[in-house]
Amino acid sequence: MMRGLSKVYHRFSFFSLSPLTLTPPLFLSLNLNSFSSPRAAGHLRTQSSRPFKTVTTMTADRLHHLVPVNSVAAENGGEANSSLSSSSDSNYTEDEESLGGKYRLPPPEIKDIVDAPPLPALAFSPHRDKILFLKRRALPPLAELARPEEKLAGIRIDGRCNTRSRMSFYTGIGIHQLLPDGTLGPELEVHGFPAGAKINFVNWSNDGQHLAFSVRVGEEDNSGKLRVWVADVQTGKARPLFQSPDIYLNAVFDNFVWLDNSTILVSTIPSSRGDLPKKPLVPSGPKIQSNEQKHVVQVRTFQDLLKDEYDEDLFDYYTTTQLLLASLDGTVKEFGPPAVYTSLDPSPDRKYIMLTSVHRPYSFIVPCGRFPKKVDVWTTDGKFVRELCDLPLAEDIPIVFNSVRKGMRSISWRADKPSILYWVETQDGGDARVAVTPRDIIYTQHVEPLEGEEPEILHKLDLRYGGISWCDDSLALVYESWFKTRQTRTWVISPGYKDVTPRILFDRSSEDVYSDPGSPMLRRTPTGNYVIAKIKKGNDESTCVLLNGSGATPEGNIPFLDLFDINTGSKERIWESDKEKYYETTIALMSDQTEGDLYLNQLKILTSKESKTENTQYYIQSWPDKKSCQITNFPHPYPQLASLQKEMIRYQRKDGVQLTATLYLPPCYDPSKDGPLPCLFWSYPGEFKSKDAAGQVRGSPNEFAGIGSTSPLLWLARRFAILSGPTIPIIGEGTEEANDRYVEQLVASAEAAVEEVVRRGVAHPGKIAVGGHSYGAFMTANLLAHAPHLFSCGVARSGAYNRTLTPFGFQNEDRTLWEATSTYVEMSPFMSADKIKKPILLIHGEEDNNAGTLTMQSDRFFNALKGHGGQCRLVVLPFESHGYAARESIMHVLWETDRWLQKFCASNTSDVSADVEDSKDNIIIMIELLIFGRWRAEVGTATVNGWMSLPQHHKWYPL
């Protein structure tokens, strides 16, 4: 057999297939000795699940832009983190392929993009006359993530700072005056706080004269805790709010809120708080949970839950707050008793404040959002008014979508009134499986009702309540929806007129983006709340609002602004995005700082504008001439990719469903000269109730190609084609559940996408990798298991692979494992680990906190793959959560991914090699064909013994 193999190898020179190289080690790795005896010449298997692929010739110059991983230059000794290293070795050693090793750096062309300084965030003043530029830093070092944290009741707490752990922050604040001509004045830098301060929670006073924010300096002992500072906007001078240096912010939940232009209510660490609770060396007893009452309690796979009494004590220690009322003149007084306050919500007239808190008994099976909850109302000068509700522990909310907590929920203030409360109460016991009408009732009541005064019914809903947009007594919009049917309704009500019958304004499918009429634009009131903006058009007395829509069309999104008459339903398009080159969106009203009616001919709006290659900039559009004035001039964040190519492509699945994807190609790439490229396919499946909705186009071909720190678009710099977000619709029409045909629809969608990029000649059929994050990682593993003919390798980040470990639902699946056993099993790539023969790179954060994607999902999947001889690699990132944050981690993820793609995708020397490993018959056929000389290559096709292969399909058909 080895002698025959040698003959096969040497015959390649006769057929002149260079520069294709198929060396003996490649064939030896197929373990041909274990195959059965060769079949007679000409015996072809055409229905193989892994069809034999034609060897496509490629000229050497098609690869001249590909830079191997070993081209990374050694970093200078002055690199910010010496634990990061890069390799100049031209070959990967066994040590490098082991699970150990140091943090590494990706190639410079990727690293430089990730290290580019981030652009600032913007925040407008209440009167729209000033803009804050909130300055940010690049990626944080791993040392910040390595700080100790407490995982309690579904949240993670930095004990030293007494705030949520892993908080990002601003490094500085710049104030710019917005001049009358629309340009920006010179920057006034907020100053006075210590060098190196970390800034959070920046908040304008209602009159726009002051800023409040938290400052954290150092992270040793008490200096790492947060203090509240205030700054004068006219001078930029900042100072601490509290004169005492021993008052610290407790920012685990809500932090502080302006009550008026000179008074702030602050959540602080109680001065009476003692030492940290000590964990007993010997427990007082066993850990016991009981359900002797036979209650039905089903919960999803939540993480970071309380485990015992010690955790309960820790939770109380870190979250208990003493509210302080602080004035800019230095006056301070306590406000209410210490409690675990989760929300501070002042009334529009700033005379009352609604305080929400949680209390014991706590739970070991649900996060703190379901703990017993108490809602009280106080006056803003510190007098208790009333208790609105005290809800019990909610462990038994059904897992079915649209199920909710019993009792009062969504308690809030009417934005258009001084101090009117409203809330919702379910009529189905919170269980979406119960058929009842009405399903939800909205109630309203004055904050201090007269004795015996009952709440008024504002509106009744047959679907689940989804929010209210307030305007005035004559107009409010109420939203309701139902997940199972994707139905959504918008009601018009007149809250101040009981004799006006509510009516449905819009009734549509939430999946039907083409019919989306848009959302009403809001204006800021003098009290700082937001209500629907009514627009007058000359002397016309009609009630018009502005509907801001994404403008989904078959050609992509074309955002718009419509002047909509609430009473007649007529509309006039007053603004629309440039559809040829740019993508523009409406951000906010800029002419809402005065009281009274807003007139169309005085309208000003803030818009953004971008193109495929031009970074997002902001503009002010003014009526009546619609003059546009640019107010920012941000540089291109990665000029080396400024001329990248982007196209939104459309194609069809075999069942007729229309699909879309965004195809990115490297700068200066010409398919006619450069030939097909290695391609990275990166996606995330979605669920739909109809084929028509699944086939609708979402997104715009003119949007700027934003590249995040772990974006697949980084590989444009490595001369890859990127197929970003190809739609993977999992459709369950009518009573059918989408996931019951998950694998079938997943594979069909991927086949259609791969065939399209190969047909276009931009992707090499043997060099297509698949990847995804979270549910996209789940997709990746399933595609390698069930569609190995499509991809050369896979990259799966932070995924879940065994659905029996999430038995009470996952993603949009709300049936339990016991209700849909076959679906759970068939969807789990863990159960198909023996079928995965293509190389797969698994990456996971060691501290993943996402429900369902426990780190052990990747651990167990890797062991299953390894147990079947699968080619796999597992990278677990210390201290990282579901998403990755530290520079060292992100750079290493990019290095691992680039190494994997170069080794198993870009360097894949044959588009047959990806499939022959699993197909004994195909290997034998290839050997026979080469021995007997029955091979003929033609442009566009290859014929073998009377059979023809079409490159776009890579299957064999009789001539």
TrEMBL record:
It holds the Pfam family Peptidase_S9. GO terms for cellular component: chloroplast stroma. InterPro entries: 6-blade_b-propeller_TolB-like, AB_hydrolase_fold, Peptidase_S9_cat. Residues 751-904 form the Peptidase S9 prolyl oligopeptidase catalytic domain. One of its GO terms (biological process) is proteolysis. It is found in: Plastid, Chloroplast stroma. The keyword Chloroplast applies. Residues 75-91 have a biased composition (Low complexity). Belongs to the peptidase S9D family. This is Probable glutamyl endopeptidase, chloroplastic. It comes from Acer negundo (Box elder). The lineage of its organism: Eukaryota, Viridiplantae, Streptophyta, Embryophyta, Tracheophyta.
